[in-house]
Design a protein that fits this description.
about 280 residues; alpha/beta; six-stranded parallel β-sheet; 9 helices; about 45% helix; globular
Length: about 280
């Protein structure tokens, strides 16, 4: 049921209010008396971290990256942001393994002191490109800051000039910091919103015109399960990822007439173990 339908139904609104006041307070009290202290004591760990990493069961993973998964990426040109390592690298290499030429875009340097991860490096970005080329596809590293739309527009122009087209853009680049709302500095909030939400919007705004001109394109935006549930000491990140869903839906409505789709991936799970997922690049 949509939010609009809920708001037009008085009985439903009353029921939701009762749940919020009753069940919400009960849940809060339960967390304080039982597991609240343990949860608060669990501190996030900056990544990359040393292994061993948690592995999903075999039936819930695609397994090691390998060619021939039956995809339709042959001859496609894709751009992946935040591709120096982690999820961005995994997506870029998976695309290459299944026939796409991939431009790996990353700032390859510091973004913000609030970020809990060590900055990506030029060496890591070049390693991603090497992995792309190992599958026989064209690959290129582009260093750009997604907060600066002029750099993204220059990248879009470059890709179109060299590769002739842009079929798919995966907006993956993001940072995360952990600060309680009442303790965070202004930059702790602003840097995550500017990079994660505004940077994703910049990516769409910079590359979509190239797709509109060809009347074809695929935009994939990385959100998170944290946008849905919220996170203790992670309000800025959660808010930025919730905003991406509104951006995605709006872009889908605007660009559909040009044969351009826009979808979001909500990565993660209830315990956020995705922060230490091992990506097999064999």
């Amino acid at each position: 049921m949509s939010d609009t339908q809920n708001s037009d139904n008085p009985s439903m609104s009353s029921r939701r209010s009762a749940l919020a006041l009753g069940g919400g307070i009960a849940a809060l009290l339960a967390s304080i008396t039982s597991g609240g202290a343990a949860f608060a004591a669990e501190k996030p760990v900056a990544e990359p971290v040393d292994g061993p990493y948690p592995e999903p069961p075999h039936e819930k993973t695609a397994g090691p990256i390998k060619p021939g998964r039956g995809s339709t990426l042959n001859g496609k040109v894709a751009v992946v942001t935040g591709a120096a390592r982690g999820i961005g690298r995994a997506i870029a290499v998976e695309y290459a393994a299944n026939g796409a030429d991939v431009i790996a875009l990353d700032i390859a340097g510091p973004v913000s002191p609030t970020a809990d991860a060590a900055p990506a490096t030029r060496q890591e970005l070049e390693e991603t490109v090497t992995m792309i080329r190992d599958f026989g596809r064209r690959g290129e590293a582009v260093v750009a800051d997604i907060r600066k739309i002029s750099e993204l527009r220059a990248a879009a122009h470059h890709v179109e000039k060299i590769y002739g087209k842009i079929d798919c853009v995966v907006a993956n680049a993001a940072i995360q910091g952990w600060k309680p709302l009442l303790e965070m500095a202004d930059d702790d909030w602003q840097d995550q919103i500017e990079n994660n939400l505004t940077g994703t919007a910049n990516t769409v705004r910079a590359f979509a015109p190239k797709m509109v001109a060809r009347n074809y394109g695929r935009l994939i935006l990385l959100s998170s399960m944290q946008r849905r549930m919220g996170t203790m000491t992670g309000a800025a990140y959660s808010a930025s990822k919730w905003g991406i869903l509104g951006l995605m839906k709006s872009a889908a409505l605007e660009f559909g007439r040009y044969n351009i789709t826009c979808n979001a991936i909500l990565r993660g799970g209830p315990h956020f173990s995705d922060r230490a997922i091992s990506y097999h690049l064999a």
